[in-house]
Design brief:
Distance between the termini: 25 Å
Number of helices: 16
CATH superfamily of the largest domain: Bira Bifunctional Protein, Domain 2
CATH class of the largest domain: Alpha Beta
Shape: globular
Number of domains: 3
CATH topology of the largest domain: BirA Bifunctional Protein, domain 2
Strand content: 25-35%
Structural class: alpha+beta
Helix content: 25-40%
Length: 567
Amino acid sequence: MRLSQFHLATVKEVPADAEVASHRLMLRAGMLRKLAAGIYTWTPLGLRVLRKVETVVREEMNRAGAIEMLMPSIQPRELWEETQRWEKFGGQLLKLKDRREQEYCYGPTHEEVITDFARQELKSYKQLPINFYQIQTKFRDEIRPRFGVMRAREFMMKDAYSFHLTPESLAATYGVMYGAYGRIFDRLGLRFRAVQADTGAIGGNASHEFQVLAESGEDAIAWSDGSDYAANVELAEALAPRVERPEPAAELQRVDTPARKTMDEVSTFLSVSPDQCVKTILVRGEQGLVALCVRGDHEINEVKAAKLEELPGASVLADEAEILKATGTRPGFIGPVGLPDEIPVIVDRSAAALADFVCGGNAVDTHYTGANWNRDARITRIADLRKVVDGDPSPDGEGTLHIARGIEVGHVFQLGGRYAEAMNATVLDENGKARAMLMGCYGIGVSRIVAAAIEQNHDDRGIVWPEPMAPWTVAICVIGSRNGTQAQDAAQALYDELTGHGLEVLLDDRGLRPGPMFADMELIGIPHRIVVSERGLEAGTFEYRHRRDTENRALTRAELMERLLGA
RNA sequence: CGGGGUAUAGCUCAGCCUGGUAGAGCGUUGCGUUUGGGACGCAAAAGUCGGGGGUUCGAAUCCCUCUACCCCGACCA
């Protein structure tokens, strides 16, 4: 590509509210233009990168035996009623009406559409297993879109759906997809981890997330330094402490703690370490209020809490009025001692191992000290309720957990029978009996990968693309082109030769001064840069510099070819 | 959904508190100089100050309202 014939749209300034590196750099490099909140135009430059990612994904999906297709982005309400997700999916579902008042949504995912397709197309177990995929624009009406395409509302996604007669077949395809995902992120040159994950709104059994490691990531992942265990913190199990609960040694005592509501305030005021305190929160589930207790230095894990049998369905934090009515106190002073009998008290494993602890006094401005389970406070049940923290033992018994941040770029699920059953998608088995199919689903955030790659690969001059994602592999910069055609001719010849070898080359023939030209090439992150100048030509060399280098090196044409084309 | 903020030239922003007829940098156009790390000079084009309403002799500026965008929170007591 001759740059004079392209639309390169780099800019010097970027809005003050572009916070993360990838967002700023994508705007500066002119890959993106914002159209509305969470909705972006991909410029010609941005699209080249997006296509690179798509290509790798497509090749690996095909290699793994998945079959590409394309489903509509607009989906009828009726289909979503069949799985009850028209209501359950929540505010992220963008709903639309046509001129006849028929209702639709813009697809945030395609389980319903593919299952509908499958129930019409697949009739026999002999057609199974089969795995369909598409690469397509999706829309989720995020509460707070941010960080550019990292958390956009409209985004590009690859989604695949497999169909099976048996759990063994599903597990086999799941394994194949898991392997394909690893290859995709390896090929793209990303540092990532596959972690055990919660299945969330989509539902199902086994599930892994593929997380690109980055400080700016919105997800927290727990990994063990003694094994290959890794899990989303939502899922990571917090083991019970190895020590037995000590015998009570202190008297239960009510103490005044005026206006000390938070754990920090209480522990400072009473000079007691937070790990000798119990904090209690009240949540309202479908069956009434439930008290959840964790140690003062721990936090409740909402995903784990939602799985408690005492809290079926949706639950929310109790409001002040409810708390006052049930306990006679306000938030900040709730404790397990003397709670009404009808409120179940679910205690985290670590909190349950405490003796002589501090907890809320169930009266405004008071706490208890010297409280003990059983003697002073009921335990309905002990459960794993808290988020794991750095330094916890690994759930597999090997090593210690650490917390890292990641950007979720892929997610694989074994969905099981849920959707096929709800939508009556069956095939006949060997005995001629109709059986609901089992499903797997496998997503990759194609546009998010572009942002994630930049988070991992940039410096103060701009983007440093992993080669497979770069918009071009080689940039040729011409210096002194106004003074004559010698350098221009040499650059053109070099361009022709490299292009002839199948390289994607960008020839900067804009005739700019060197400063702006180099700055642009570095900003947009082209891996290899060659400078063609009169000076070099006289010496019989070209000037070469890799994007990661800080020094130029003078190479002969042969040396240059060897470097770029391999031996 | 709650709270806060912003909206002024193509872009990034100042001006608003204290009302008096519109500014800067970058970019763009023309001419000249310059040509190895975001050059310089001269000249120029470019804004219904987000929309609507009000107060006032006079509104970018004060008030009301609508819209869009951004930030924080919305389960840690």
